[in-house]
Write a structure and sequence with these properties.
The chain is an alpha/beta fold and 333 residues long. It folds into two domains: 247 residues, P-loop containing nucleotide triphosphate hydrolases (Rossmann fold), CATH 3.40.50.300; 68 residues, no CATH class. It is built from 13 helices and twelve strands. It has an eight-stranded mixed beta sheet, with helices on both faces. Strands 2-1-4-5 form a four-stranded antiparallel beta sheet. Helix 4 packs across helix 5, helix 5 packs across helix 7 and helix 7 runs parallel beside helix 8. The chain is globular, with a radius of gyration of 21 Å.
Length: 333
């Protein structure tokens, strides 16, 4: 049986004056009904570009999807026309964009912007769309939805704007929801409310959800599976419990080690030295080798193969045995 969404060997490049930027290179993951996939990594790793590729919103030029497949219930979205893709956006696949203040149109009311989606995809009348828009605002927990329907984005708080974005994304009951950094720039209390809301709506509507974030705490809270992405590639992939309890790739271990520990308040936070290389200048071998303490000549020159750790856990690294031995030594200390 086909997965609800199956991304296979996706490659998205940007052709710039400085060379070809391989933003997403040979990335594969899937999402089924009721499933939640967390896509985690630092800024510049290609997470958002992979999501925009699914929606076919890559600006061309300079960007181009050069390879792979994006299968929605077995149908390759890269082989359909732009008109067919417009019917799918918002209807079958909804997306919550990173920053609601810049994603919402400042000259239209919140109600107008939700109505547009409903009239386009559901073929509702203006009156029917208004009723459904108010119902959608109520669904995401916005108080006084009839009043908020007539208000502009600048009149709402950050948390309220994010709820409006979620309302727009869910207005047509999509089968897939892509949430790109849904809790960024929100205070901790509002973050928790937004994540709880997405979780609640997923259970009620049975959607497949992709959560894109750099926050492993968010992943632990809402995801069933996680894909750790670094410099255009997925370096570790699998069940969230398996990866959190038994991380294998040095990058994943570094991310988990950098989470503050309440029991070690006097110790310094662990960090991953260096930064993500620019996508026009990735190493020939493992992209993490510029920051990895275990890297040798093979890591610099040969791309690592994906190793099956278990039936629900894979990692791409030449030094898995050495990394595991060091991790066990640190854990037992």
């Amino acid at each position: 049986m086909a997965k609800l969404l199956d991304v296979k060997n996706l490659k998205t490049y940007f052709y710039t004056d400085d060379g070809v930027a391989t933003a997403v290179d040979d990335v594969s993951y899937d999402v089924d009904k009721g499933d939640t996939l967390g896509l985690v990594g630092e800024s510049g790793c290609g997470k958002s570009v992979s999501a925009l590729s699914i929606m076919r919103l890559i600006p061309d030029p300079p960007g181009k999807i050069v390879g792979g497949e994006i299968l929605l219930k077995g149908r390759d979205l890269l082989k359909i026309s732009e008109k067919e893709m417009r019917d799918i956006r918002g209807n079958d696949i909804g997306m919550i964009f990173q920053e609601p203040m810049t994603s919402l149109n400042p000259v239209f009311t919140c109600g107008n912007q939700i109505e547009e989606v409903l009239i386009l995809h559901q073929k509702l009348t203006k009156a029917e769309a208004k009723e459904k828009a108010i119902e959608s605002l109520n669904l995401v927990g916005i108080p006084a939805p009839e009043q908020r329907y007539h208000e502009y984005p600048h009149q709402l708080s950050g948390g309220m704007r994010q709820r409006v974005m979620i309302s727009m994304a869910l207005a047509c009951n999509p089968e897939i929801l892509i949430a790109d950094e849904p809790s960024t720039a929100l205070d901790v209390t509002v973050q928790a409310q937004i994540l709880e809301l997405i979780n609640k709506l997923q259970q009620e509507l049975g959607m497949g959800v992709i959560i894109i974030t750099h926050d492993l705490g968010v992943i632990a809270e809402v995801s069933k599976r996680v894909a750790v992405m670094y410099a255009s590639k997925i370096v570790e992939y699998g069940d969230v419990y398996a990866i959190f309890e038994n991380p294998k790739h040095p990058y994943t271990i570094g991310l988990l080690s950098s989470i503050p520990n309440i029991n070690k308040r006097k110790s310094r936070l662990s960090t991953i030295e260096g930064s993500v290389p620019f996508p026009t200048n990735f190493p020939a071998g493992c992209h993490f080798c510029t920051r990895c303490k275990f890297a040798d000549e093979k890591c610099w020159n040969e791309e690592p193969i994906v190793v099956n750790i278990s039936s629900n856990h894979t990692a791409a690294c030449w030094k898995l045995d050495e990394v595991e031995a060091k991790r066990k030594l640190i854990t037992s200390a």
